Every structure is written in structure tokens, then in C-alpha cells.
Amino acid sequence: MAARPRKREYRHLPDYLIFDKERGVYKFTLITGKKKNLGKDRVMAIAIAREYNQRMRSDNIPSIEKLIRDSGGINGEAQPFALHADALLKRAIEDEKPKSDTAAMWYNDIERIKEYFSDIAACDIELEHVNGYIKKYHPDSSANVQNRKVSFLKKLFSYAVDESLMFDNPAARKKMRRVDGKTRRRLTMDQFMTIRQSAEPWLRTAMDLALQTTQARLEVSRIRYSIKEPKEGVCGCVWLDNEENGIYGTLYIHRQKVQHKEASHVAIPIGAALKIIIDNSRDSVASPYVVHRLLEKRSNPISKEVTHPTQIAPDYLSRAFSALRDKIGVAAELPIEARPTFHEIRALAAHLFEMQGIDPQARMAHSDAKSTKIYTQNHVDWVHVPHAEIVYKAS
User: Fold this and answer.
1) Which of 41, 108, 231, 260 is deepest in the core (most CB within 10 A)?
2) For the chain, what is the total number of helices (H) and then of strands (E)?
3) What is the pTM of this model?
């Protein structure tokens, strides 16, 4: 119903303010309906009434600020945050260049963010909205997962603040959940062997390589059968023309996680154990990679970590290991976040080498390694580790 027009004598006054002629004072009606005496000073009464209306009746009182907001704001800050989400994500990806699996996770998260913030203006987002988002989409997730989702909101909002779409970053005020010490259980040799016995040949090869080299999934997936010479960004074998004292060649590993450190270049002698793993991996599939398989149909685009159709993507390697672990019931008594992953083969290998009295740190590309020999080839310093093997009965 339309509001009743004011009397002519009050039209020059702010809404809800009148002048009591009998008492000579100005009276103002609060939102509760109660009337307040604002005194005889006309200028003061008008100023108080306007300020009160602006704060308490902003939806009903026209103002420059309201018109700007209704227009979407000066920089778009009054538009729904969802309208800016894709552009902000694009900036984040261009600036930070995340790995493919991280970028894929961001693309999934951005869809949820656009859905949740579809009708919430960027400038109106508060901590309560951050809490609401986590409660809606990740209520039962682990502390690690929830913290990761808050961190992504924080990242996205930081770009929004930079573009004057938000006044501050409410996700930065969110208290992260406490994360206990590493809950994942170490992989035992018995568990390794149980999984290995049920693994497909390509996965068995990857497991064996990880155990003998102490390398992680990315480096294992990149090992080539043969390279002419060691170089940056390449993992592969340089073979001797003839076996020399039980050594057949050298496996060069450039570990990407520490790629800018001297210790990231590791040269591992290829002894009998490594040679057997490599020889046994050869099959009818023409592939330059030791860990390989032929996929009949690829529904998803090739990962940026993969350069050949037969090469195994690192994330697929991890998923396949975990899926097989769960299928055969290894560590089934533990919650899924505590069950050992493919990466734990690296820790198992380090433990087994230590048990043999061999320092595993140089082999693992740790910068605090002891007793290492460094030599230069093609202007790159390679850490040459001594020949060592983990002996186990492979079936």
C-alpha cells in the first residue's frame, strides 16, 4: 500500500519529523513507533532526523549511496560476487600457475562459490558467509580439507580486494581448524608386498621403481628407458656399453619439488635390481617410459604432466594405488585419510636403506644429505649416490 502523503506544512522536513506548534519543538518518530523530542533547534533536528533515517531506514530513504549501489557500485562491488568469480580465478591461475590437479580442484570449487554467492554482493560478504559456505559444502570434511577450502576463499577474496570489489578479506578472519600431527600411517613391507602381488604390471613396475630409487610419483612416472645424456627436467637412463662391476648404467633423476636446489639432480647407479625392473617392464606397447600402459579410450584431456599417450599421469598413479589398496583391504581398519598412499613407498624405502646402514637422503634429493659426491656434466651439478639395492622376494 502506498504511503500517505505528508501534510504540506511538514514537506520541507525529513520523513518522520514534525514540528509541534503548541510546544514549539520538533518531534521525531523512531522505527519502534515511539516519538522523541528533538528540541527547538530546527537545523539540529533536521540533521539528526536525516542521519537516523539514513542509518535505520536506508531501504526507504533515497540517497546517492543507494543509487550507486543499485547501479552495481563504482567498481561492481554491489554486484553478486558470482559475477566476478571466473575473472578472479583466471587472475589467480595466471599469477600462481598451479599444477594441473590443483587447478582442477580450483575449477570445481569455483562452481560451488558461484552457486553460494549468486545473490550476495561482493561488498556485503562477511565472516558469516565464509562459515555458511563451509557448512553447506564441506560440513563433514577433515580439518585439512576445510582449511584448504577456506584458504582458497582467502586467495580469491584477496584478488577481489585488489580490484576494489571488497573492502577487506573476511576469510582472513576465519580461524583455521587445528590439524593434528601427520595421521597417515607408514606403509609396511608386508603391506607393500600384498598390494604389489595384486597390482597390474605397470603399477607393479612403478612400485618397484619407487622402492629402489626412493623417488616420488612424479619422478617415477617420468623415467625414460634411455636418454643420450643427463639434462635439466629429464629423468632417464644412460646405459654403459658393457656392464662394469655389476653396474649397467646410471639413472638420472631431476626432482621437481626441489628443482632449484643443487640436491635436486640425483645420479643413481643401475645395478642388477634396477635393471631387472626395467627389463621386466618391456612389453608389446611402444613407449619411451618405463612406467606405461596403453589406454583403449581416453575420455579426459591428457594431463600437462604427460607428454606421451602411454605415459601414466602422477595423479592417476596415486589413485590407482589407493583404489587397489582399498579393494584388497590393506589398512581397511583405518580411516581413509590415515591409510598409506603411494607416496609412503618413498618413506618405506628410506627406512629400509637406513636399516642397511645406507644414508638415504642424497638418493631422496634432500639438501642436507651427507657423504655425497657431486660432479658436473653439461653445466649441471649431479649428486652421485653409491650403488645400493633393497632385496626382497618378488613374485
Assistant:
1) 231
2) 12, 9
3) 0.57
